[in-house]
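Fold this complex.
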Amino acid sequence: NAGVTQTPKFQVLKTGQSMTLQCAQDMNHEYMSWYRQDPGMGLRLIHYSVGAGITDQGEVPNGYNVSRSTTEDFPLRLLSAAPSQTSVYFCASSGGLAGGGIQYFGAGTRLSVL
Amino acid sequence: KNEVEQSPQNLTAQEGEFITINCSYSVGISALHWLQQHPGGGIVSLFMLSSGKKKHGRLIATINIQEKHSSLHITASHPRDSAVYICAEGGSQGNLIFGKGTKLSVKP
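Structure:
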């Protein structure tokens, strides 16, 4: 099992460019989330999904878009990148209470917006 | 919005010491998570608990719902325990609110 796979690992964008961060899990988990991690701020929830076709906003959703067309994939779209979106992004999945509530994290994507 | 506070921010210990990291939150929660972030950046889930105590190897997590407080203990600490330990409140669905983390360094 690969677990949670994030691509790319590193990305540099220019202000105004758009891109999609990919996240895929092979554990048949219902729940998936996107977080960003900034120095001194800790991890913050961007968007999350409780199943295919269902998404909701987290703490810092502005500038990001998500969709969940399949159980496996939960891509995060940056619509028009800004320097404030320079961060490390983590995707996570969970099988819920049936899986003991354990969260599985991807390895992260380090994004720089110039 | 729940506030999750951790203490201390930084902790240095000698190998073999008993370590305690504290986490408090401001409103009632469904569950509390403890996670470990390795120096390379990877994040691993250690515990999810909603009451009482859980143990895994040298790690013990406790929660006091009435006092809105949780602790993570490490017995017989080792340099390989050096990492950032993060608590987060939220259920099993993954919409978590995180503390800022405690950076632990264990010296040989």
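The longest strand of chain A covers residues 42-51.
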